[in-house]
């Protein structure tokens, strides 16, 4: 079992939790929550892929695994201890902690663990109205804090939404979703390649995020049938709202890339991520390209945008009969690849 540095710090202090009813939440990067000895454990994961992996590994009866967008008293149940993994995005941390502290009981002990580079030290200031944090331990550039909740937060979901406008389209977003602070320039470049009334009938948006690409293609081709896929349950919520805000419809699918996709498409579009919290990884992009052939019709097309500093000529040449650079700037490249 390969543990993240955050989980290694929890492991060093494992004896604290033996008599606790623990609720795990936040940017959990491994399966250590399954193995920490507690009276009972509830784990809430924001990624569907992590949820599936932990569900398969779960063998202990006193552990529950959730994949919920928002927390509630019913999800947290009678947990008296929280272990929160601090994410790299402070706005996401505030959003999640405010939601959490509106439902846990007063006098719940909350542990916060995070890497220095994630900005975990800002937890003191962000949460000081509700909890006084004390440093418990630190190692390998990570810190573990603890505090007792003395006052519940008032959580109003609407306070956290941001609405961006692009070409008369309304894009609704929440912290922790790609494109929350502003519409990504790479996504704009990809959207600029969509033409009015194209022949693409069925379209799949992989990693839909806020739903920006989906509504952009529906704006150009209102008769297209668009399926929106994401691993992040908060992103799926935002995509649903973005569709509704622009009077469009689409099928929202919770899926780890193509894991819950059951049909073929004329066009697959994506602005795939290469960050997983603080880590850089290209595994998702490679899997998206490789497996796309299975989910494209005979005349189907894969169209995606990527940072220009990354070269995908080799993998596209290997798996597609034809591909071109459709559009390029100093920062981004839009690739267009054809099955036949």
Description:
The protein is of the alpha/beta class and 340 residues long. It folds into two domains: 152 residues, Vaccinia Virus protein VP39 (Rossmann fold), CATH 3.40.50; 178 residues, Vaccinia Virus protein VP39 (Rossmann fold, 3-Layer(aba) Sandwich), CATH 3.40.50.150. The chain contains ten helices and 18 strands. The strands form four sheets. The chain has a seven-stranded mixed sheet, sandwiched between helices. Strands 12-11-10-13-16-18-17 form a seven-stranded mixed sheet, with helices on both faces. The protein has a two-stranded antiparallel ribbon with strand order 8-9. β10, α7 and β11 form a beta-alpha-beta unit. α6 packs parallel to α7. It is elongated. The mean pLDDT is 94.
């Amino acid at each position: 079992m390969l543990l993240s540095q955050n989980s290694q710090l929890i492991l060093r202090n494992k004896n604290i939790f033996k008599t606790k009813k623990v609720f795990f939440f936040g940017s959990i990067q491994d399966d250590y929550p399954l193995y920490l000895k507690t009276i009972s454990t509830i784990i809430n994961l924001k990624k569907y892929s992590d949820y599936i992996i932990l569900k398969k590994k779960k063998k202990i009866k006193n552990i529950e695994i959730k994949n919920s967008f928002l927390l509630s008293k019913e999800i947290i149940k009678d947990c008296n201890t929280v272990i929160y993994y601090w994410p790299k995005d402070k706005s996401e941390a505030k959003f999640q902690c405010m939601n959490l502290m509106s439902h846990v009981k007063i006098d719940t002990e909350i542990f916060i663990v995070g890497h220095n580079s994630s900005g975990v030290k800002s937890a003191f200031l962000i949460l000081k109205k509700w909890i006084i944090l004390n440093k418990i331990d630190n190692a390998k550039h990570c810190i573990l804090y603890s505090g007792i909740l003395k006052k519940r937060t008032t959580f109003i979901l609407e306070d956290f939404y941001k609405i961006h406008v692009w070409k008369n389209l309304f894009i609704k977003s929440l912290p922790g979703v790609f494109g929350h602070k502003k519409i990504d320039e790479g996504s704009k470049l990809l959207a600029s390649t969509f033409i009015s009334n194209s022949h693409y009938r069925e379209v799949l948006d992989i990693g839909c995020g806020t739903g920006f690409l989906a509504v952009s293609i529906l704006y150009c081709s209102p008769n297209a049938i668009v399926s929106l896929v994401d691993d992040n349950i908060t992103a799926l919520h935002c995509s649903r709202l973005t569709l509704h805000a622009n009077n469009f419809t689409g099928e929202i699918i919770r899926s780890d890339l193509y894991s819950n996709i059951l049909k073929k498409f004329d066009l697959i579009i994506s602005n795939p991520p290469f960050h997983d919290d603080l880590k850089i990884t290209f595994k998702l992009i490679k899997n998206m390209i490789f497996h796309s052939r299975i989910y494209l019709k005979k005349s189907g097309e894969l169209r995606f945008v990527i940072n220009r500093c990354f070269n995908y000529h080799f993998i596209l040449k290997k798996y597609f009969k034809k591909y071109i650079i459709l559009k390029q700037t100093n920062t981004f490249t839009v690739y267009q690849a054809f099955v036949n």
